[in-house]
Amino acid sequence: MSQQGYVATPPYAQAKPGMGGYSTGFGSTTPQPHYVHYGGTGQPYSAAQAGHLKPPHGHPPDPSQFGQTNLQNGIYNPGNQIPSYAVPSPCSGQTSPLQSHGSNTQANYQNVAQPLFTQQVTGQLDAMQIGDHGSSPVHPQNTPSLSGPPLRPSFQGSQPQQFLPPISSPTSQGLPIAPAVPAAAVPPGMPPPPRVGMHVGLAGPNQGSVAYQQVPGQPPLIGYLPQQGGMYGGQQRGLQQNYPGAYPGAPATGAQLAGPQQKKLDPDSIPSPIQVIEEDKLRRSGQLFVTNTKGQVPPLVTTNCVVQDQGNASPRFIRCTTYCFPSTADMAKQCQIPLAAVIKPFAILPPNEAPLCVVSHGESGPIRCNRCKAYMCPLMQFIEGGRRYQCGFCNCINEVPPFYFQHLDHMGRRLDHYDKPELSLGSYEFMATLDYCKNSKPPNPPAFIFMIDVSYSNIKIGCVKLICEELKTLLDKLPREDQAESSAIRVGFVTYNKVLHFYNLKSSLAQPQMLVVSDVGEMFVPLLDGFLVDVQDSRPVINNLLDQIPEMFADTSESETVFAPVIQAGLEALKAAECSGKLFIFHSSLPTAEAPGKLRNRDDRKLVNTEKEKTLFQPQSNFYETLAKDCVANSCCVDVFLFPNQYVDVTTMGIVPMSTGGSLYKYNNFQIQTDAELFLNNLRKDVQKPIGFDAIMRVRTNTGFRATDFLGSMYMNNTTDVEVAAIDCDKAITVEFKHDDKLNEENGALIQCALLYTNVAGHRRLRIHNLALNCSSQHADLYKSCETDALINLFAKSAYRAILSQPLKNVREILVNQTAHILACYRKNCASPSSAGQLILPEAMKLLPVYMNCLLKSYVLLGSPDLPTDERAFQRLLVTCMDVVGTQSFFYPRLLPIHKMDVNSEEFPAAVRCSEERLADGGIFLLENGVNMFLWFGLNSQPELIQGIFNVPSFAHINTDLTSLPELDNPYSKKMRSIITNIRNQNPYSMKMIILKQKDKAEGIFRQFLVEDKGLHGGASYVDFLCYVHKEIRQLLT
Ligand SMILES: [Zn+2]
Known about the structure:
The chain is an alpha/beta fold. Strands 7, 9, 13, 21, 23, 24, 26 and 27 form an eight-stranded mixed sheet that branches.
């Protein structure tokens, strides 16, 4: 493909190779009120450098590349907008306690005297009722509708809501239903308000309206204890004040008062993730989600649907915390709902959805707004008979270039509207011209360099041989451009212990040649020609090398390794070859050999729960950060596969992968018999996955708000440009927005994400994702358009970053306080004023408390000295680059009752809630969270199932050392293996399957994933946390 051409305004500056920014022209940098999260972690701003004007070349414009005829569009028809309703905001205009939150971590409402808590909870629970009107058959209008038009969820339940008086006295602090939007607020003749409120207490349809009422004279009960034997340790000990992971002011007592003889708060009466997930599936699964309407809330990530792009990016690419932004900064500050988008630019689309079109605007490059540089998209409005267009982002009026001119129809729409992806679709790609290339030269195809630690430890565990064997076949499967016969990616090989060995693999050689670099202080690449080779050309030499490596080092006694020089060597090799690429480093131990980046064992779990705990998540020195920056500047992405048998300082070793868009894998105490399959699956996925190199991402918005914060596996050299050496199909970047002005309700909030990158064939591309959101001055509109799963993604990533600079205790407090604020604001502005004291949750956010509690109980935020530092650091890095699907299942695992599986159905058995109570002695359960997978067998598991799955007669015969199931020819075995394969295919990481028996010693690790229960290492139960949040909300409202 031709890369020649010019544009008058160079889009990307190239003053510094690889670090160039987009050209400026993007709004002001007015300081924003900072009310969410953890304060000053912003990057220093450095202005983008000016680029160079290129002389024109004589190539004719490329013909348009798309030939899709079924382009459809129905964009932004105001008639399709979800109407907003006048919801009285009794407290608006007043000084709300919410407004005092600020960025201060010690918000004023935290001064609740802690000793009072138990007493307050007592008072609260004395009158607590758990209402169930929400799903009562008597009031069907309150039930989330299972029918109705799938694309207009806001109209469901569209009857005026009724208020049922609580059964207890009017002053009681119960949880009965109340109208989320007072019926009186609906003007006559107008459609009734959409259902925006949800009351705790949604349960099965046959449940009574009061699930729990305090028995007079009895101590209050807010918790329930798992009914179980005493062998699991943690649950039996009392709840300690300040136990790890406690929320602020956690009850010192109370939670553990519940005993078998006492009446418990019925867990079925509080919002259930399973129920919400299942209801969404029932309502929207298998349906078409057409993206033709501004601000549409997509189905949950757990619901399968087919997406049709009709002007907005698919939720597979972008998911938002809310699809309706508050119109003013004040309103945003009041509600404290973070405004964010989780962007996964390279998300894989299923085969039944149309792949992205590639558009060429010829030698002049993509058409862009002169002022804000936004790319041509459905948000541009053509005027004056098609001669000009108004930019949807900055309102600038631009001339339409003559070659792009087209007449308008009677609707003011271009006649070629449906023929051009950039006019009718939310996502598409542009071919980029030379101005978008480093040094204005077409890029070379990328390279993969495999770098294998051949020290004693890696050799002994059999890793080296395993890798070399696998690479022989894997090299045939390197990613390639569609229709290309073979991959353009070149490969190179390095082995190392405390010195590095490079290999000359030139196709003319009969044998590979080894060149040793023992001076690791100043790393250089001893050969240029023959290091990076084409797999096809050099196949015999490569195979020869891969056969020889395990033998060459079979008798090594070298136990020391270097690490930084290995990255430097790869980086230098890519620099010398003038290409981008990825290093695959297979490493075993803490790099203690004398060399740059040498590390010492500094693990110290005594720091946990102290002011210094944060140092465990900070790198040992700045060395790796500088190296990472260098890697990003030269488009060198680094993936690290760790095989440690002790502490390896994941925090420090993970810096480079996490800053370059790479991945980190960790196999503790790797054993070839049990872990080889897991590792190889990961390696295969990692090598073959769709990926873009030398990427720079910019998020543009319309006037009124802007992107202010970015979270993910990436690097920021200034405040606006996200730089990644490479980004693959699994990596998501979470972008937070703040107001810098008022948003116009008619225009809504518009987002354009542009990602410039080099594809696997070495072609420069621009991938564009557009999304139009609603905007409203009514809190109810905002709350009904929220997506809790995306909120948790943002909360997790920002909390995991905040622990670098703050004590974990503060970070946890901020999360709890913000949760209470969000819900209190809803209560204040959207729910009936007559229902003070009730816990009323917004329908779209009724899972916020349970998911938030899961986040608080995650390894990273727990602050328990029982947890290995490397494991916490590892999970922190994993979550940092996760998408919404990933964080949803990571924080609330999926628990499947295998004993209920239907061998004749394609479906999984319906999941159950992650709680001890849901387990059964006679059951078999599969639990997975995208990282871990367990198969748990109850003491009385059905012998028939055990026989079917393992071919052994009974529970006692189950071999728990297995990590995969035997392939047996019976329906149970087939169904079971198909479930596991399906789960593994759905996740970016392959999971090791751990088989556990009830009452085995190892069972403890399984139980800590039962996230609705009190944690083994600390952390409140869901019920306790919900009560605590309720108390906080009431505090805020008084
Ligand atoms: Zn513009």
